[in-house]
Every structure is written in C-alpha cells, then in structure tokens.
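assembly run, all chains below
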Amino acid sequence: MADRLTAGSPPPPSPPATTPMRRRATALPVRVAGLLLRRALLMAALLGLVFATVELLPGDAATATSVRGESAADLARRRELLGLDRPVLERLWDWMTGLPTGDLGTSARGEPVAALLGGPLPNTLLLGGIALLLTTVLSVALGCWAASRPGGVLDRAVSGTATALLALPEFVIAVALVLVLSLWAGWLPAVTITGADGGLASWQMLILPVLALTIPQTGWNTRIVRAALADEARAPHVEAAVLDGLSPYRVLTRHLLPGALPAITAGLATSTGMLLGGAVVVETIFNHPGVGSVLAGAVGDRDSPVVAAIIALTGAVITGVLLLADLVRDVATGGDAVAGGGG
Amino acid sequence: MDLSRREVLLGGGGLTAAVLLAACGADDSGGSTAGRPSGQPAKPRRGGILRVGALGRAGAITRDPHGTQANESDYLIISLVYDTLTVPGAKSNTVARLATKWEPSADLKTWRFTLAPGAKFHDGSPVTAEDVVYSLRRLRNTPAGASRLPGIRADDITADGTGTVVLVSADANAELPLLTRLTTFVVPKGTADAAIDKAPGTGPFKLDWFRGGNARLVRNDSWYGGEVHLDAIEVKIFESPQAMANALLSGQLDLASNVGALAARTAKGRPGIQTLRRPNDMAMPIAMRTADGPFADPRVREALRLAVDREAMVRQVLSGYGTVANDILGTGDPAYARDIPQRTRDLTKARQLLQQAGFDTARTYELYTTEDIAGLAESATLFATQVREAGVRIKVVKQESGTFWDKTWLNAHLYTTYWGTNDSVVFFAGKTMVSGSGQNETAWKDPAFDEAYRDAIGTADAAERTRLLRKLQEIQHQRSGYLLWGMADGIDLAKSTVRGLPTLPGYGRVRLEKTWLTG
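ok done. output:
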C-alpha cells in the first residue's frame, strides 16, 4: 500500500518516555479526523491511479472477457454495456460517487462487486488477522528472549535466523510447508476446501497459510523488537533501574517494553500491508478462497471496479491498523505521533 | 490458463462426420466406459462420495447453463445437473442423451429429435418438447447463440407433439446433430433469467448446494439414462493446477480433472494414484497466412511442415504426454484419415522447397504467441529453434492475451493458436478453413477444398461421405495454412479406487455418470 503513515525500518529511536514536554495543542479527536481526511484524499488519488493503470494496460474489459470469434459488433455492444466507451475520468467519478452508498459497482462479467467480494474478503481478513496476531506474539517473545542475553549465543541465533527468514519470499515458504508437512508427513491438509456455508471445512486448513504468512513477518518484526529493546536499554532511566537492582523481568516489563512500544507497533503496523500483499500469493498456493484470486483474475479481466474495490477495502483496513498503531504511539510518547508523525 | 478463450471451443459446437444417418440411436458408447487397466470387468459398486477438483476462477463463476462458462468447474457442475440432447461419444462422435434418436429429411435440412421416454426433471415433472424448444431458443438468443447453433434461427426450433423437437437448418447439413452436443442444456419451459440458478435439471445428479464455485450433487435415482453409482459428487473449484494436484496427493480429492502434464510428472510413481490420459485433447497448430505475405507460397508452408521435428515437440513441449500429428485438424474424429502418410522431418527437401519458392532466408520472421495455455509459448520457441536448421530465421514474439486475440489472431502471417474440440474433421473445415468462414485463421481459399466440404456435408450416404471427407483431409494435409505437429493429451489424476472415469478428450472429461468407487 502506498498509503503508509508510519515509517518502515529502521524504527526511529523514540524519545524517552520521561520527556517533560507534554504538548497537546489540539484535541485528539480533531487530529484523528484530520488524519482520516488526509488518508481518504490519498486513497482517492490512489484509486484514480488504479483506474488509470488498468486503462493503460493493453486491451480492455470487453476484449479480456470476450470469447473467441466474437465479432467486432458484439465487442462494441458489450463495451457500451459496460460503459467502456465513456472517458476513464467519468467512469472513475461514477464509481467513486457510488462508494458512500455502499455501491461498489458492477464487474466486467456483470456481477455486483459487493457480492463478488462478500465471501472472499472475510476469508482474507481472517487469514491476515490470525497471521498478524501470531506475528505479534512470536516476534515480541523472540525479541525479548534474544534481548535478555545481549550478545550471547541465543541472541545471535535468534537474530540470525530472523534475518534469514525475512529474506525468504512467502511462496518459497508456502511450497516448502506443503511439501514437508502435508505431502511427506501427511499431518496437515494441503489446500483449503470450503463447505456448504462458505466456511472452511476444518480449522486445520488455516495452519499452513497462516504459517506461510507469519514466518517472514516474524523474522522482520523480531529484528525490530530486538533493536528497539537494545536502544531502550541504553536509556539512562533503564540503566538506573538496572543499577537499582530490579529483577530483569521487572526491568523488561516496566522499563524496556513501554519505551520500545512505539517502534514495535510501527513495525507490526507496516506488516499489515505486507501480510495482505503476501496473502495474494499464499491464497493461490493453498487454494484459500480469498480476495487474492479475485484480484488476480480482475487484473487479467481489466476489471477496474473490482480491482479498485479490493484496493479500497484492504486500504481501509490497513489505514485502520496504522491509525491504531499511531494512537498507541501517541499514548506512549505523549502526543507526538499523530500530530507529527503523519505523512 | 485463460479459460475464457476456451469457452468458444464449446460454443462452437460444430459439425462432424461419422454421425450416421439413419436413426442414429447409437447407444452410449463412449466417455464413461474405461479409465482402468482392463482385465477386470468388475461390477460397479453402488455408493460413495467422489470429491472432484476442477479449474476455475472465483471472478468468472456462472450458474447459467446457456451462459459463458469460462470455468471448467462450472461446466462440470452444469453438465451433471442438466442434460444436453446428445453428448460426445467414442465410436461415433455424437451419441444419445436426452434425445434417443434423430432423423433428417431427404434434403438434410430438417432434423427431428425424439426425446427419451420417461425423462423427468428433478422436481418430478416430465420433460416435454416444449421445454426443449424453450431451452434451445434461450440458447440461440444468447450473444454467442449464432455460433452455437449456426444456420438455425430461434423460429426454426419447434415442437412436434410432446416427444419430438424439430430443427430446421438454412443449409443442408448432414452433421447437424453435432451442434446439439455441448451446450443444449434443457431447463423447464418459462424459467426466468433471475431463477436460472434454481432451475431443476434432468441430469444424473441433483444439486444439493452451490456456493462460491463449489457444489455438492446427489444421485438422481430416477434418471432415465440408467443406473448412477455414486451417492454424491462434491466439486471443488481450483485456481491453480498445482494446488489441485497437491490436494489430490494429500488425499483431499479423489479426482483432479484436467490437471495437466506437470502434475502427472509430479505424481509419477506415487502409490495409490492413477494417471488418466485422454488423447486428442488439445491442438496447438501453427497458423501460416495463405492469402498474402511470406507464407502465401504453398511450397514455403510445405517446407516449414518438413522442418519441424514432431517427436521432439511432443517430448519437450508436452513432456511426452501427447501424440505426433499430421497437419490435419480433428484427430479424434472416427473419420480421421489415419492412412494418409505421416509427414516426417526432411531438412534437405525443406531447403530445396524454400529455394524453389525464392524464400528470403536473410530476413527474420516473427512468430506471435501468447501464454493462455501451458506449452503454447514453449511450442513457438522450440519450433523457431528447429526451423533454424532449415535456414529459416524466426523470432518469437510473446503477446499479452487480450492483444493477441484482438490484433494478431486472424491477421498475423505466423502465429500459434489452439483448439479444444478435436473430434471432428468437419468442425474445423467449416469453422476455420472453408472460404469466408468466420474464423479462417490462415485466410485460406481453396476451391477444391470448398467443394469437398460442401459435398461432404450435403451427402446422406455414409460411405460416400467418408470418401469425400478423406479427400478433404488430403487437400488439408497437402496445402492448408496449418502446421499441426502434435496433439496434447488431457490429463486427469485420480485415486486408484476410482473406476469408470471419462476417456474422451475435451468436454468429454465431465462424463462422470458411470463413475464408481471400489470399497
């Protein structure tokens, strides 16, 4: 997603929590509203870009969904039916003005886009949500574990493994997981199969796709957690706490983690976009019925309304997560993030 | 693979040889007999649930039996729930289904189809000629209707009593029943467009539920077509053949339909898995423009046909899952002329012919291709390498699918194409080779060929027509614009407990009504 609020890695060293300055120039709700407005404008620009890009691709929705032997007259008629004979700006405007009423437009094959995404989107969000949760738990745990013995064998092992994992693309991990855990060992189902209610036939079908998404993101976030904790450990108040003889656990939970929280949240928020992007690939490999396959098909069909709707909906989710992350930073740093950190 | 392009092959229907005239009540002779090593004519066991994977994309799902079925999964579900008048066969390429027999008038223009006695919709109501007329007219009035039922207007479809449907063709057509094989699904008279997904069918299975491209079908105990063995079929939609193969190998499926050569190679040697090869499934000919340009001289086309190494093409492009072909399209037709000598590689003769024709070997020629189906672009690349040995320089240009079909197809001097209906010589002749045919891919005009074609489809006598069809194939072999190096097999993977699987190519792969499971 181009729509990104927080900076990626490396996380900027956060100001010590004990900063005396507590600047609250404007009320929080006002700043949040302003931020959302900026997000919305950015999203509108992005959606315009989506329409323009699809327009620039060779062919259009009429030719892409045509059948062999369809005559030029048939094509022209379908082009008119789909509204493709109108200028792209006009089509974009029509589509955008339908959004507030919940109308996501009609696909190139004549289906309402909202109905087309009604089943797949929740499936993708479920997959991405579980993966984000698992990434959070694993990376914080591993990061803390590594930070507990700075420079030790354990620290180097965790950091090294994390670096190796974050370099692996999701599809490599996904293929390896299927091969080992499903085809060789036979422990887990290789693909997702849905039942009469559109839900997964069994919860085990989530394990492999979630792992394929979680592993590289955990590698990434473990590095961030570890680095943030190291930065924080050098802060005077933490050194003071250690010298006071507090237990390592107490130092970690009371002094290190709260200070490192803004950086950790920023890292995890950035992962949301990567998780949803990775879901497109992972869904294909595991036949997970999410928006990934719909998106791939829609690009092939030059189906602007479908592509734009997927971008808008996932974009909204990512914006929500980023906003949440900023609020966390805001609370932790005392008001700097939302006012100053926005982009 | 771009499924939307293949739909046409279905829509085309086509005409064909080998539908014998008098009372063609040919019994079901194909499609659902074998699929098993012979020697054990085991008695089919009743019961069991077959889990089938089929290819399809979530964005292209359709429930309309007369719509554009871009997804193989949708076509599979529709063909199990609804019946067509006739279906593809093995010994004869058209065999009975909802119509038990069909007879032409003396001029071969009026055809009378008799409906199966006792055929009933899943809601219990009997099938009448009115239902069939309604369905065929609905099909004819779709955007692709004119190419699905060529030569027949909606008004030319009428009922005669409750049990007979009459089709009148504008031209004499001895092969008309071929048109009724693949898309003539019958729904009750008066079914509204909005309720088409709830229309009861007459087929061997009833729809239990459908959701997001997946479906569960249960046995129709009162099917007029004979005993159905399976209790139920569960169809699962797959976007990628690789995921489908994995599902089969890990035991989540019993049958992976049309999964392809790559998956067959992966599954090789795995216990409990059978690979089913359905020959003559896909043709990927190279089209050489005959009307003008560098390949207009028949000697040049002949030279290219002699320069290609057919065995190597089949081995490398199709991983060996295919057969060598002889530049005649419609290889699965019972009337296909196997006795025409197989053309083989002869580089010396190829160079001679090029020289005689004054072919400019200093130039580089462009061969256009697209990646719609597995192996197509690879076939272009290997072909270019092979003909280099005869002194012809070819540069392969890969195009995005939309551009290819919009701009290149029917126009370029040299390009790859592909067809999925390969059991009829007449189908290709009428659709792609007769002068002025709508999809004349090589812009071919050959008076002798046109005459042979018209004579063949206007001849009622079977023996005489076979002779005429042979003449038609000889001309094609000698000088058409096609270079057909080989035919790809259709490949299914199944658990070894599945019996009675389809053996026919193309759309024959959906014939699961005689399939059964061992204990």
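The domain at 120-289 of chain A is CATH 1.10.3720.10 (MetI-like fold).

Residues 1-22, 339-343 of chain A have pLDDT under 50 and may be disordered.

not gonna interpret more than that til we talk
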